[in-house]
Amino acid sequence: MSKVPTPPAQKSKRKVSxxxxxxxxxxxxxxxxxxxxxxxxxxxxxxxxxxxxxxxxHNNVVISVVTEAxxxxxxxxxxxxxxxxxxxxxxxxxxxxxCVLKKDDFKEIFRKFLVHxxxxxxxxxxxxxxxxxxxxxxxxxxxxxxxxxxxxxxxISGKPSVAKAGASVKATATTGKMPNPKTPxxxx
Length: 188
Fold this sequence. Notes:
30% of the residues lie in helices and 16% in strands.
């Protein structure tokens, strides 16, 4: 008796559902330290092209998350030079940060995104130490990759380049200087 072939949609759902957090997370994750100022964090977000990041203590334990929306509010009400630690009472509490473990499966991660209105899920170890971040974009890349579709990212030249799902994003030190909005953008 011959086996009935599984339709392609069912095959890919199985493939994506077998993925674990450590296979789709971005690592090392871009992090925020409690001593960073609002302007330093804004510069970091712009430079790294991210919309939020975990805040970690000196042991790399996740203590909160800060987003672009948070930074906009803080800048409007309190200026750019205060440290993020000054706003901890207005940020997500440690116990409310949406987290998964490295070995959690795709279904658990996806469920977190459906249940919680977040743009990123933080990946930690059993002690709460940061391991990586899974953004909604990482989820989209996982679906594309499971379908065999190359993930394309635009380049400055306008020609797309191909990136792998879960590709690492390296954190860089910030200068604390904001780009000059009066500097003209060169047109090609």
